[in-house]
Structure formats: structure tokens, C-alpha cells
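G., the chain you wanted modeled:
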Amino acid sequence: MKKKEYIESMRRAGNVKFRSFIVSIILLTLVWFVTLVPGYLGVAEFIMNVPGEIIYVFILLMLGMWKILSFMFFLVPALSYWWEMSVAKRK
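Predicted structure as C-alpha cells:
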């Protein structure tokens, strides 16, 4: 593969990963805003027969895990593609 094609493929892959990270963070924010509506928490409390505080803490822990995983699977690879691209341009 030629150097120019390699750099272009790395750029595309990095852009896709970075856009996926942005979409993931936007969805995470929207889901977090939904948890602030008391009606949804009341329905979940009624369906699961678990106190609302426990459900709310569980949801926040899952949102935190989602954020950590989105960093690991989207942002870190996008940064590594960017770094590899910048090194390839210098050579």
C-alpha cells in the first residue's frame, strides 16, 4: 500500500471512531436527562418492585460504565489513528 493511501485509510478510520465517540456521548447525555424525569423512575420502581434510590444509583453506575467503555472503544483508538497518521506524514 502506498504511503498516501495508508494515510487516507488511517484518516477515515480515525474519523469514524471519533464520530462514534461524539454520538455515544450525546446519547449518554440524553439518557442521563431521561433519568432526571421522576415519572420514569416511578414506573421503573413499580415494575421492578425495587426502591427508586437503588434504581437511580444502578442507572448512574451503568451510565458511568458506558462512558468508560466509549472512551476505551472510540476515543482512544481515534487518538491512536491520529498519532499514527501524524507520524506517517513526517516520514
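The chain has one domain: 3-86.

Shout if anything looks off.
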